[in-house]
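sanity check this:
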Amino acid sequence: MSKFKRDIDRGGGVYYNETNITAANGGRMDINELLRGRNNCGCGKDHVCEIEQVRIGSSVTDQLPELCGKYKSIVIAADSNTYRVCGRRAAKLLEDKTECVKVFDGPGLLIPNEDAISELSACLTHKTDLIVGVGSGVINDLCKYVSYKHGLPYFIVATAPSMDGYASSGAAMITGNMKTTFDAHVPAAIIGDVDILRQAPMDMIKSGFGDIIGKYSALCDWKLSELVNGEYMCGYVYDLTYETVRRTRELAGGIEKRDPETIKTLMEALVIVGIAMAYVGNSRPASGSEHHLSHYFEITGIVKNRGYLLHGIDVAYSAVQTQKLRQKIIALGSMPDKTYKFDREQWERHIRESYGYAADGVIELQDRLGLYNAGLENIYRSKWDDIIRILSQAPSDSELCEILETAGIHFADFEKFYGRDVIDDAVLYAKDLKDRYTVLWLYYTLFAQNR
């Protein structure tokens, strides 16, 4: 047993220890209890989640007619793969209520952009009272976004335990060539049929596992931003997410076996993390520097017509990569006397080289945020010891690799797929895609002069 595993099992000083998390002693978290929300939280806020139903288990797709009992005119959305896997069955189950079945069957991957939004919106009429998405990441985001814009509820019938956005209120879309998470709403119901989920492509199952393991990075970034920027932090949500990650990492050995109980627990973890995001109203508990790198690979892959990996796989690899950055910062010992002085001309040149026709949106975002002129260096100097303390709480890159390799996810494949130059560019310029502070900003200040 690694030192990190022992530390995690007893808390390791990483938990806030402000709250009692249901599964802290190994018990199963009660999703229905979480759906009821939490009033008078120690963070000063009430936490709510407006999901009405979550059904995860064997053959729960058969419960779709019951769940849709009060709806009369339903639009079903799927892509060609998910329609074959479960969309046709869903349409059959809801046959007397189905107004339209929209199957996205164009060449290549479905992208949640303006064209896809228009295509799904065109299927809606004044009679439509529910959208049912059948799929995973892109279908979920697309149905979430379109249903929100049209004031409709939506259900998601999950076809893969591939990502944590099922229960979140944010919709990750690509509009104006930018990867943007829009405020939307949670689904009214989530259906996760284990008999379907365990038959998903193995890369998608690994993607879900990797997305959860990436939370080690995201949670560390959340603490760092609380220190550096005074960002809101909820100890209960932090602990809820951390405990979910702790439970999920124990599943690694069952991932490639498609073990039904492993798949069920993984799907529950993905939903719980989504609920955690709904509690705070954004993706902060689950998305940090590791997601910024993943979004960079996706956006630049689309712009430059080159391949990119599944989101959760990229997140897993990027969590290892960002941990390498934390360790490099820790190894400095003290805050350097000389740090990188922002060069606007040089920065803009690199942004245009990296993002191509999407560069204008990236530049506009950072001009609006003003983080490059926020005097962060002075904050780093005054809070250096506390920064190092927070960075030291994350598991090492080798420990993360050990967890991931047990599930068949090998970091060497990451470097081979993208190449060192692309990864190094992502480390410096992925932060510019988002309005969120992470360790990437600290690293840029300390090490950008070396590029």
